[in-house]
Amino acid sequence: MEILTSCNLASISPYEPSDTNPWDIQKVKHVYRRLDYGATDATLNIGVLSTPSELIDTLIQEAIDKPNPSQPEWAFWNLNNYTDFNEENNGQISDWYSQTSIDFISGSLKNRLAFFWFNHFVTQLEVYFYAPYLYQYWDLMHTHALGNFRDFVSAVGKSSAMLLFLNGFENTNNSPNENYARELYELFTLGENNGYTQMDIEETSRALTGYNHFGGGVTGNPITFDDSTFDDSLKIIFEQEGTWGYDDVITILFEQKADLIAPFICEKLYNYFVSPDTNQDIVNEMAATFLANDFEIAPVLTQLFKSEHFYDIDAIGHVIKSPYDLTSTFIREIGLQYDNTDNQFSNFIIYLNDITGQDIFQPPDVAGWQRNRDWINSSTISGRWEGIRIILYNFWNLDQEQFRNFAINLSGDSNDPALITRSIIDFFMSRSLHTETDYDIATTVFRWEIPDNYYDDGIWNLGWDSAPYQVLLLMFHISTMPEFQLK
Length: 487
Known about the structure:
It is built from 24 helices and four strands.
């Protein structure tokens, strides 16, 4: 596999604004697109009044304080609670999809991190297909999103969704199953072929036995530990011998392999929040912070998000938006009202993101989505374009005046089509367009069929009946620009 190195050479030292490197709207927009799902113009204007350090502290504290998604009434149902399991379970899953897609649009660092960890500790809904376990696992991702990574790893392996997905439910003293032990090391903590042997996997699988029964013997209850299926014989894990059980595995792993775990996880955080191309020096600095803080996640994120490296120009507009990035960020940033009667709008978002490569609760395999360049191909790009068009039509059909007001707000009610066009384009792009010709082409789209003399004489303005439609046409054009796909 080709290893790409970041061209961003800025340091991990805290970013201090200067005349040559000011704190501005572009950087605030960068913060909200990477830590959240974008922000409205009003929120950006408030953010620029804070210092970089103050804004990051605020967003991280808000994420720590933010409650988990509201618990549905069926969150801990077992099969005895269902009257018609197939119909009710399918309906609950559908509702949770819709709720989650709306939660993304509502934003927050906590939601984004929960989705990041969901793609790290991968499960697939189709394997266990049980609404309460889906909720419980999604709730777990939120609970530990900014907490202690050691505790997170420990909790994940005992969750019902994971026990079913990676066959821990089948892992007994009479028939050990290596699946979870292998992925615990290869995907979740150490990385492929990094600090463990096949023997370590085999011995660890025996230590993880015993989680093979539903609580109270009722299917659908949380899966619990049972001494009768636990292998209590001696095992040797990372050269340590004992009658190890589940908790011992976590303790030994983090005691013996801390110096391998920290850079592996920090590189994943770096690739997600900064660049798919790794700067190993920055990752090593993050890993040192991770170790110094006993695997607490928040200090690492704080260090990264406040750094010169995070705000370097080579970090801005450098990551391809995922399907959920594309839709959630666009809807949130444009700030227009939409019609979600009977969940039709949220269901369309779910459908659109699915056909362009991201079924939220169904990563493609145990390694998860590989992101960035994998999001774009000849098929998905046309789907992304058409999806934004349909979203725009939803706004349009609800209230056309929204488009006029949006343009008035961004341009200061200008009557200059070039200025209006540039104001709207620059709002949606992480960086300016490559050439002035690109702005000129977009301005021509915005001018539409209005005679030139109406612009030249200053007769036309955003109060004209045609103005909302002109903004809509410009938005269609913007949505097909390559730069629109970047954050």
